[in-house]
Amino acid sequence: MPSYFSKIFGKSPVDPIQEHMETCFQTAKKLKAFFKAAIDDDWDTAASVREEIVALEEKADTLKSQVRSSLPKNLFLPVPREDLLELLSYQDKIANRAKDVSGLVLGRKIKIPSEIQEDFLAYVSRNVDAVKKARKSINELDELFETGFRGAEAKLVESMVAELDEIENDTDDLQAGLRAKIFAIEDELKPVDVMFLYRLLELIGDVADRAESVGHRLELVLSH
Questions:
Q1: How far is residue 9's CA from residue 5's CA, in Å, rounded to a whole number?
Q2: What residue ranges in 40-177 does DSSP mark as E strands?
Q3: How many other CB atoms are there within 10 angstroms of residue 11's CB atom?
Q4: CB–CB of 67/12 below 8 Å?
């Protein structure tokens, strides 16, 4: 069913923002297949998935540029245009970080110790869950516009953002557990490998952090 804005202006001003968020989610989601291949020591598959991640990140950049240049400046909106562009910027950082992570791992062919592989994949998956929840909240933008960012729809999005915070807390706990397990086997690893493993945990954690930032930015939009 066409939205209120679609009926009047032909296309909702938030459709491109939602498309951009979907692309960022798909970029982050690829990390699960990427790390599965890396752990299996299948670097050809990892390289192939990395190419898909790069292509999606480039698509996100293109969409971001299109939104910035085409979002109407004279259209009456219930929130400032600048707030929507700021939200877009937070979304884009998710795809950027997924690209950074895959590039670091592939470039150095970082091996994940067998002792932490299961927990590591769970950590990656939980970070992707955060992006999925952020995407779900952004998918409510059309309805938020129609309700003037008030009422039951606004409360629904607020609850989603609260769930997003819980997921991000989960990723913090998982990261702490992984750090402890790496610390326990540090003597068995090369110092440089230990350094990059800790750095990798931080970069992956940034995926959930940036997804949480999308949620908090959306909350700020709701407060106007």
A1: 6
A2: none
A3: 12
A4: no
Q: Cβ contacts of residue 53 below 8 Å, gap of 6+?
A: 27, 30, 31, 34, 98, 99, 102
Task: Determine the straight-line distance between the first and last CA of the chain, rounded to whole angstroms.
Answer: 27
The CA–CA distances, whole Å, from 132 to 11, 25, 31, 174 equal: 24, 6, 13, 18
In the numeric block, the tokens 């309805």 are attached to: 143
The confidence score (pLDDT) of residue 141 equals: 78
Q: Which amino acid is at 32?
A: K
**What was the pLDDT predicted at 26?**
98
145-173 pLDDT, tens digit per residue, is 666 566 666 778 788 889 999 999 999 99
Is 191 exposed, middle or buried (CB count within 10 Å of its CB: 0-12, 13-18, 19+)?
exposed
pLDDT, tens digit (0-9, with 9 covering 90-100), for 174-216 = 999 999 999 999 999 999 999 999 999 999 999 999 999 999 9
Q: What count of other Cβ atoms lies within 10 Å of the Cβ of residue 118?
A: 11
Contact of 20 with 60, CB cutoff 8 Å: yes
Cα(194)–Cα(118) distance, integer angstroms? 18
List the one residue out of 197, 168, 167, 172 whose CA is nearest residue 182: 197
- Apex 166 CA angle, 164 and 169, nearest 5: 115
This prediction has a pTM of 0.90
Coil, helix or strand at residue 88: helix
